[in-house]
């Protein structure tokens, strides 16, 4: 809100100034060059001069005076960005000098390495010096660029480079007030600049305390002016010395300016050793450089199996380098919840936002790296993105390219991709449930074990569809904690008898994924628990069965048995008991129960609820009124219960009732709907007691 008010004030100030003066401009930057070092860090030869004209004291132009206080006190959210602005300005000045050296006759100072130098005052911390050996400024340019806020020499330079896109892209500065950020931490700022052969042969000194006035005078020997370039001397406020200490400056440089195209030296030590790899072609990036860059931007120590270098010039100018970690960053971090976005947004090598939350959808928060876009419009302080639609468009472009890249890797390197998916596939599943726009692309990336694959081997929906036998028109799946339990499930028997492959889903989120997808490759997704598939009799005859006699109960006996189960053994607990043709080797199953994902969700809710709510949720879990128990009329156990329930021996009739209850609970276990198995321990003990021979 503070920044929005500041921006509105900026616009009002500019409008007022234009109305009264008619000539003020509000282009893009505050000054044109920048900075470097102290006496110990300088490479430029000091220039000895004597005063040629008296010191001039001048007032800032109308808009500058009015807006300077806003810039200093409310435009930026963090004071530390002052250094980012000065380094960016210095980089622009160096880029102009570089281009001049390529296109013009060499002049004095051209033989020096172009660099930005920063010197801290480790004694008292009262002074910070930022210097460069770029193009420098003449007296007139100092007055024009520093006396008028939002005066941009960089923009004018860009406008003159229509025929040279590469040179234009290297100019960072297109932002209006960067230089004035120095007043956030300074009581007084001095700018000593020399335009070299381009100027009048003199170095000039601009000075201001930010009170609405500034002075310009010819630099003296004590000012130690550069042969060419600009030196900024900041006299630091007592409360802000921590920001200008060696540690404070180093922290800010690593955060914002690690990839500036020119060397950045802090007290003589180079701070930007890691190059801006995203500006290079993929073929020019070595593995060693790539790993060093990944560890720098991510802070991780794993070896990412995939990296994506993506560049585009239309519809937006994009340079990016993204990594896909080997390990789940949220698992590595522990139980701290979701991690932040791992992608930082840059503009011409200068960081604009670290861990940009709104660039990529949340399910891609595991991606690490950099996106550099020249077209992103920023507010006047570079700290927030203005055009949300343009940012959304950038995010869509990157997201689609990421999903396309993963699809290509899945096809070209399936084993490597499947190994990666086993660790990070959860994020893609989350995307199916949360981002409708990408669910079809994400469906192509999902991998599961199935009844037709070996343990640990994964398959895709498309591969599954290619193996479907004639007559199968649906994709079947089962949710189970493990492969062993999935293969032992009674719900698998009918599909297996028909030769239908079944996908094994082990994660709780998988059932929600299926519900959101609904269909893949034109085939409906159906849980075998709800499929109501009948056993293929011809194929089932050859399968091993626990039944000793293939003959089933006749219809009359089956109807009587179902009535006994419903009215006597289970005492009206269920909606219905009926005979089933869905089973081969299991005695029974239940249908009409809630999906496992909902049961898991209810359990979580129970743990997070108070006593009254937990009691209500527990009652819901024990409500069987919508369940149907389906009995296998061919199973030996069912036939024996039918015989035992009418026995003249009371103990045998009691045993039949106990076994009937146990069959129901066993079916609930198979369906995953029995939350607490301890309730059946007493019954099991009684069954064991009655079935063991009596002591002689």
Q: How would you sum up this structure, described in words?
A:
Helix 11 packs across helix 16, helix 21 runs antiparallel to helix 22 and helix 22 crosses helix 23. The N terminus is likely disordered. The radius of gyration is 37 Å and the shape is elongated. The strands form four sheets. It has a nine-stranded mixed β-sheet with strand order 1-6-5-4-7-3-2-8-9, with helices on one face. A five-stranded mixed β-sheet has the order 10-11-14-12-13. Strands 15-17-16-19-18 form a five-stranded mixed β-sheet. Helices cover 38% and strands 16% of the residues. The longest helix has 25 residues. It has 696 residues and is α+β, with helices and mostly antiparallel strands.
N→C terminal distance: 89 Å
Query: Unreliable runs, pLDDT <50, ≥5 residues?
Result: 1-51, 171-176, 540-549
Question: Assembly type of the shown chains?
Answer: single chain
Q: What is the C-alpha radius of gyration, as a whole number of Å?
A: 37 Å
Strand order of the largest sheet: 1-6-5-4-7-3-2-8-9
Classify the beta-strand content into a percent band: 15-25%
* Number of helices in the DSSP assignment: 23
Average pLDDT: 82
Largest sheet: 9 strands, mixed
What level of helicity do the residues show? 25-40%
Tally of strands: 22
Tell me, what's the shape? elongated
